[in-house]
TrEMBL record:
Transmembrane segments: none annotated. Residues 127-246 form the GFO/IDH/MocA-like oxidoreductase domain. This is Gfo/Idh/MocA family oxidoreductase. It comes from Paenibacillus piri. GO terms for molecular function: nucleotide binding.
Length: 329
């Protein structure tokens, strides 16, 4: 069974998805759309699809619609696609407000359409090393998780910093860290304390630094230290357990090249070099998964409900920072 795909939003991330979808034998990209028609046309030419100047026409040509626009447009586009009987793959973050996200969840339930939110980090090699070791029990009872990622993000002149379209770093980018913590712990976030800052006088309202402590319902604690205004580039993610500690690290915000762990039973730490840059592999796995879900009518691993839960955590972090207090979800 061939799944016909529409691509709505033909910018940066669409290229990663299109590259992957063209490798999946059960998927065929049939239509593209962008408010900038030229972009849709170029993308369509790269994959043998047709570019449309009306979004509804692009949607109607397909079985499955990829919503790859800035997040402020995700709600209207995804609901329109589901109302036309289509399944949707929505890039993260699901939306820019919990109210919008709730409407997407409601439409997916009411219309019986699959809505996956694209948290591709779950398919990264590095995070899977952490997931396997924590699930193996080798680290013992978990005390805390961390995500530290520092780099210089140059976002001027894009929707990410445009007053009318921005969702901000804490909503857009921290959605990945929050998703990974929920996945590694198997638990929801109970409360947060956040300190969110804007380093740029020329980009009012744009948060680019978030320092966050999260408490999870199962008792784990977690921290996020994330900056898009750091003059040094590095990252590390890890887990401290009672009987062992594991971490991955690498250059920049998203590249992992080293996995280390040590437990009480080991004399020396285990160190492994591996190559897990932020490339198309995780998007390929993500796309294979969702095409399978659409073919078989099965639930995706990251649904609109997950997208909503994650967005609520981001909003609680922002509220915590504004009010300088712990916010309970
Ligand atoms: N999973 C990841 O790692 C990852 C990485 C990058 C971006 N993203 C997400 O992907 C989405 C898009 O980001 P991007 O980096 O591709 O942005 P982008 O600016 O490169 O592309 C967005 C495109 O959407 C088009 N667009 C704007 N409004 C539209 C509308 N109403 N209808 C149709 N097209 C419209 C723009 O013209 C542009 O071509 C965002 O939600 C972002 O957070 C996810």
């Amino acid at each position: 069974m061939m799944i016909k795909v529409a691509i709505i939003g033909s910018g940066g991330i669409s290229k990663s998805h299109v590259q992957c979808l063209t490798k999946i034998s059960d998927a065929q990209i049939v239509s593209t759309y962008d408010v900038d028609f030229q972009r849709a046309a170029e993308l369509a030419a790269s994959c043998g699809a047709k570019a449309y100047s009306e979004v509804e026409e692009a949607v109607l040509a397909a079985d499955l619609v990829y919503i790859l626009t800035p997040p402020s447009f995700h709600k209207d586009l995804s609901i329109m696609a589901m109302e036309n009987g289509k399944h949707v793959m929505i890039e993260k973050p699901i939306a820019i407000s919990a109210e919008d996200a709730e409407q997407i969840v409601e439409a997916s339930d009411r219309l019986g359409r699959l809505a996956m939110v694209g948290f591709n980090m779950r398919y990264r090699q590095g995070y899977n090393k952490l997931k396997r070791i924590v699930d193996s029990g080798k680290l013992g009872p978990v005390l805390n998780l961390w995500s530290q990622r520092m780099s210089m993000g140059s976002q001027k002149g894009t929707w990410r910093t445009n007053q009318l379209q921005m969702s901000g770093f804490t909503i857009e980018s921290l959605s990945h860290d929050i998703d990974i913590f929920r996945w590694l712990s198997g638990s929801e976030v109970e409360s947060v304390y956040g300190n969110v800052k804007n380093s740029r006088d020329d980009l009012p309202g744009y948060d680019d630094n978030s320092l966050v402590i999260l408490k999870l319902r199962n008792g784990y604690t977690a921290s996020i230290q994330a900056s898009w205004s750091s003059h040094l580039d590095f990252n590390s993610r890890g887990i401290v357990g009672n009987e062992g500690t594991a971490m991955i690290s690498g250059k920049g915000t998203w590249n992992f090249d080293t996995f280390r762990y040590k437990t009480n039973r080991m004399d020396n730490e285990f160190v492994e070099s591996f190559d897990d840059p932020l490339n198309a592999d995780s998007y390929l796995e993500e796309n294979i998964h969702f095409i399978d879900c659409v073919k078989n009518g099965t639930k995706p691993i990251t649904t609109a409900k997950d997208g909503l839960a994650i967005l609520q955590v981001s909003q609680a972090i922002l509220q915590s920072s504004r009010e300088n207090r712990v916010v309970t979800l």
